[in-house]
């Protein structure tokens, strides 16, 4: 199959037009902002968050329009020239057999010429080892450490160590008993535990239900990779952006939603390097690929049922969101 020619943006734009899709329809499929999609089609990558997200967005776009994602990534990385001829189009040059006989002959000659020196070196080392052996054997050097004393010290150390281990085990058992009592008494005072249930999963689009929320819902997003950040966008039920940006490596961002909000969505650029918690309950993100863009739609249910009125989602955009920012 002959490879297509053109830049990443030109090929994605042509594939989108051939598929009969608009830029808005691509945005709905990939959940990537239109300004980033337009920047990719125009090959203006400086307008995107970073090279990591450029590759992720190109791969997402390519899958949506049926393009070769790996080939487009190689063009973006400079491994393939956009307008270079395909290897199948080039004239085939007959292979020339390499003659290795001369190299083998030279190598054998070098080994043969250095063999006498190797033998002499081994002989000299053997004589030196014999001389040193007899010198130390007849000097009668006494050991610097008395064996009997070292055994006594070792036994004293072992007895003291075993005694300290017994004392520490008794202390740890007593502290564990106290801690278990404290935990059992405090757990009885806690309210219902937050429950997170996966409703559906289609590709990188996941719907979740979070139950037993008391008061305001709080979202915390943390970048767990010490070397890379993670790109995050949080929208309310009306798709109004509450936050959009890159969380730097090993940092976190917290956002309190309007009280009574029943639904929100969050897009994560590197889910495998991201830790997401809702009211202290952590979501398992380790199973997702760090190169994909994950789209989560979360419905919220408060203690005693959905306590907010039907106007809560529409009024949430007019109220001020409580933001704690980075940590």
Structure described in brief:
With 327 residues, the chain is an alpha+beta fold. 42% of the residues lie in helices and 21% in strands.
Q: What does this protein look like?
A:
With 327 residues, the chain is α+β, with helices and mostly antiparallel strands. It folds into three domains: 8-89, 434 Repressor (Amino-terminal Domain) (Orthogonal Bundle), CATH 1.10.260; 95-138; 195-326, no CATH class. Helix content is 42%, strand content 21%. It has eight helices and eleven strands. It has helices spanning 8-19, 23-30, 34-41, 51-65, 69-77, 101-137, 147-189, 312-315, and strands at residues 195-202, 205-213, 218-223, 230-236, 241-247, 252-256, 263-268, 274-278, 281-282, 294-302, 322-326. The strands form two sheets. The chain has a six-stranded mixed β-sheet, with no helix packed on it. A five-stranded antiparallel β-sheet has the order 9-8-3-6-11, with no helix packed on it. A hairpin with a 4-residue loop joins strand 4 and strand 5. The model is unreliable at 181-190 and 307-324 (pLDDT under 50).
Summarize the SSE layout with pairings.
Elements (H helix, E strand, L loop, with lengths): L7 H12 L3 H8 L3 H8 L9 H15 L3 H9 L23 H37 L9 H43 L5 E8 L2 E9 L4 E6 L6 E7 L4 E7 L4 E5 L6 E6 L5 E5 L2 E2 L11 E9 L9 H4 L6 E5 L1
Parallel strand pairs: 2-10
Antiparallel strand pairs: 1-2, 3-6, 3-8, 4-5, 4-7, 6-11, 7-10, 8-9
Helix pairs in contact: 1-4, 4-5
């Amino acid at each position: 199959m002959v490879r297509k020619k053109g830049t990443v943006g030109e090929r994605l734009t042509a594939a989108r037009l051939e598929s009969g899709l608009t830029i808005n329809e691509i945005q709905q499929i990939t959940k990537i902002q239109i300004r980033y999609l337009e920047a990719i089609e125009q090959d203006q990558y400086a307008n995107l968050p970073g090279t990591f997200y450029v590759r992720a967005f190109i791969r997402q776009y390519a899958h949506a329009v049926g393009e070769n994602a790996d080939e487009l990534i190689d063009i973006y990385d400079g491994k393939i020239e956009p307008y270079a001829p395909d290897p199948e189009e080039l004239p085939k040059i007959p292979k020339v057999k390499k003659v290795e006989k001369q190299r083998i002959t030279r190598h054998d000659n070098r080994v043969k010429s250095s063999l006498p020196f190797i033998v002499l070196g081994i002989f000299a080392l053997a004589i030196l080892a014999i001389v040193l052996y007899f010198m130390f054997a007849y000097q009668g050097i006494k050991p610097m450490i008395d064996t009997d004393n070292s055994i006594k010290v070792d036994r004293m150390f072992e007895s003291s160590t075993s005694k300290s281990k017994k004392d520490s085990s008794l202390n740890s058992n007593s502290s564990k008993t106290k801690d278990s009592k404290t935990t059992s008494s405090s757990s009885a005072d806690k309210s219902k535990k937050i429950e997170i249930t996966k409703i559906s999963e289609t590709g990188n689009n996941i719907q979740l239900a979070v139950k037993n929320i008391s008061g305001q819902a709080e979202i915390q997003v943390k970048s767990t990779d010490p070397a890379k950040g993670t790109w995050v966008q949080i929208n309310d039920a009306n798709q109004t952006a509450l936050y959009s940006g890159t969380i730097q490596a090993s940092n976190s961002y917290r956002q309190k939603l309007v009280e009574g909000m029943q639904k929100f969505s969050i897009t994560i650029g590197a889910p495998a390097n991201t830790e997401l918690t809702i009211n202290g309950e952590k979501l398992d993100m380790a199973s997702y690929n760090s190169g994909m863009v994950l789209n989560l739609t979360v419905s919220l249910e408060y203690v005693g049922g959905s306590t907010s009125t039907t106007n809560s989602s529409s009024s949430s955009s007019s109220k001020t969101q409580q933001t704690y920012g980075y940590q």
